[in-house]
Amino acid sequence: MARIVQKYGGTSVGDVERIRKVAERIKAIRDEGNELVIVVSACAGVTNELIARAKAVCANPSEREMDQLLAIGEQETIALTAMALHGVGVDAISYTGAQAGIFTDKVHTKAKIKTINAKPIEKDLVAGKVVIVAGFQGINEEGQITTLGRGGSDLTAIALAAAVKADKCEIYTDVDGVYTADPRVVKDARKLQEISYDEMLELASSGSKVMQSRSVEFAAKYDVIFEVRSSFNYNPGTIVKKEIAYMEKVVVRGVAVDKDQAKVIISNIPDKPGSAAKVFRALADASIIVDMIVQNMGRGGIANLTFTVPLTDAAKVQRTLLPVLEGLGGGEVAIHENIAKLSVVGVGMKTHSGVAATLFQALADASINIELISTSEIKISVVIDKAKSDEAARVAHAAFELEKL
Amino acid sequence: MARIVQKYGGTSVGDVERIRKVAERIKAIRDEGNELVIVVSACAGVTNELIARAKAVCANPSEREMDQLLAIGEQETIALTAMALHGVGVDAISYTGAQAGIFTDKVHTKAKIKTINAKPIEKDLVAGKVVIVAGFQGINEEGQITTLGRGGSDLTAIALAAAVKADKCEIYTDVDGVYTADPRVVKDARKLQEISYDEMLELASSGSKVMQSRSVEFAAKYDVIFEVRSSFNYNPGTIVKKEIAYMEKVVVRGVAVDKDQAKVIISNIPDKPGSAAKVFRALADASIIVDMIVQNMGRGGIANLTFTVPLTDAAKVQRTLLPVLEGLGGGEVAIHENIAKLSVVGVGMKTHSGVAATLFQALADASINIELISTSEIKISVVIDKAKSDEAARVAHAAFELEKL
């Protein structure tokens, strides 16, 4: 007997038929004698539909009311999932975020979990009930409903796993696990049996869309081991944990491509102390996330700055920086949207040299030009031409022999 | 300045366009300096859609989970209504039943309100906010969501009006008010300016579908004066209160027809003490509401019982009574579905004789046969042929000169 937390995403509970399938799946695991806490998301599409209705009544809806509205998506799926379990003879009870005692701070639409009072859930588990909890939502100390932002249901599952001291935490999604590269692009990509939190974090920040970084960070902080797997089949997924047995031997664990980035070049800034700080302060104030910064000294006291931003923020960058550059006494902004960021990630890099050389050689052999480079302890990222990014993923994957993992 | 509770039903908030119209309406009343508590129902159709989904995942959904599910209907409309008010520049805040402190007993799907902690609402009212409250729902002392059953949103409004000591309570619906008869049947039916709780109760139990009896009973108990009016126009509605100024002069206030009744005749029951009790105990145990009971002694120790039941329960009556009659040693059950119950209602009847005679004469003049009669202090009901019920309503309306009210 084990205590297991499972999370089912929006496509897994996308309609009543799928909810019934999920119930069958839960029943099988319950029948093996396990204690189960099930976290569910809203049906795929429901959240967007609710947002559209909100925008139809008010151009700029308040975040408090948005949370009040969006929370109904999960409240629907928890009730339907509990009913579907009753339908197959499993004793189950649903909990909203508030009922589950998931207390957050007061920041609506992107609240942080502060504490979980897991006593009522534990009582129901001991009484033999499957407990269904609404993902993505909580309650603040004033009794107002809050939501946790993107990836919030994963976070709910991992936080609950920590709170109820679960033996296992399983994140069911529409992919099979974490791969060495996107299998749609790299045909011989391999599913990883295990991956470390750090590697998972670098992959998430490098455009691999399996999970949001904050959930992985939370798991790392509370040392919650979790498995990413598919609810549409019974294949084992990828286990994410702190240390991996063969970590020393394998240098690179995966290749990720992020096509949703733009490259920003600011040229001819008068090179005075604090110029760069002013640029990046303005971008931060506009909530634009900046990555891969390179500064070049030009000739004659002129500096150039290059960095990447999310593609969706590219227009905002232009609007934000023009007045700043005016204040600095000059400079032009150029945005290049046809770029991609390719990253190779692996904890083993820490103790192995030559990873950068291998990557650069592989790209050079394929005549792929590198426009920017940035590195961390366990990641190397390069900016390349977007049109060549699929080919780049394949040659990098082959260069590190990831198909042999 | 007045403190006003308004309730908008499911058709009034049936889509985003209508929610915006309701917001404009609320703004106008707010701009006059009034304090407002707004109770809203779920969008028309949403509750039925949710019930359909529940039945699709489970043949017999648990009532606790049903409440958890159905409560999202109003949670959607409160958030959208608050947003729509923000959109027109009105400060507003939404409350679920739980947030509004509406505490109920533990009976899921038809909970009774026990207490309301109105302090948070009053604080927001004093702070100048329009408070939007989800109708139909509450919370029990274990923190579980409950719903109040049919007509629950009216009940929420009336209970809140009592709790916040409102000066006015307005129930917005899709009819203009309470009429002397159904205007679709009786062309010269008049809208009543005022009606007493007792009359309203008798009309409700006589098939007039403006409001459920329990809301009127609650209003009578706490002496909450309320107005029934339409959200689609600005006509004054009907005010429902304890005493009406001209009550003494007017004998009959309205004619109601209930076509959803069936007549049950049980004949040839051996007439032993307790036979009738056994019949009605069995019907009560099957939750069948019985009305208009008449017992006739037949010849030679044989009794006949006649009564009416809701049409939807007719088949259940047969199933329920056959074993009982067997136990009593005989008797047959006959169900007549082609009947209607016509009622004339008026507090003035108490002190006026001749109402029954006037009604019976009017029906006789129109060759309408009376099959059963029952009377209360302020109501006379007759069972007649369903095919003649519209004509009966017209002749009764004319006989009491209700078009002159």
Descriptive account of the structure:
2 copies of one chain form a homodimer. The first copy, chain A, has 2 domains: 3-174, Acetylglutamate kinase-like (Carbamate kinase, 3-Layer(aba) Sandwich); 244-405, VC0802-like (2-Layer Sandwich), CATH 3.30.2130. In chain A, 35% of the residues lie in helices and 26% in strands. Chain A has helices spanning 16-31, 46-57, 63-87, 119-126, 152-163, 197-205, 213-222, 275-285, 314-328, 355-365, 389-399, and strands spanning 3-8, 35-40, 92-95, 102-104, 113-116, 130-134, 137-139, 145-147, 168-173, 194-196, 226-230, 238-241, 254-258, 261-270, 291-297, 302-310, 332-336, 339-345, 372-376, 379-385. In chain A, the strands form 5 sheets. Chain A has an 8-stranded mixed beta sheet with strand order 3-6-2-1-9-11-12-10, sandwiched between helices. Chain A has a 4-stranded antiparallel beta sheet with strand order 13-18-20-19, sandwiched between helices. A 4-stranded antiparallel beta sheet of chain A has the order 15-16-14-17, with helices on one face. In chain A, strand 7 and strand 8 form a beta hairpin. The longest helix of chain A is centred in the N-terminal third of the chain and has 25 residues, at 63-87.
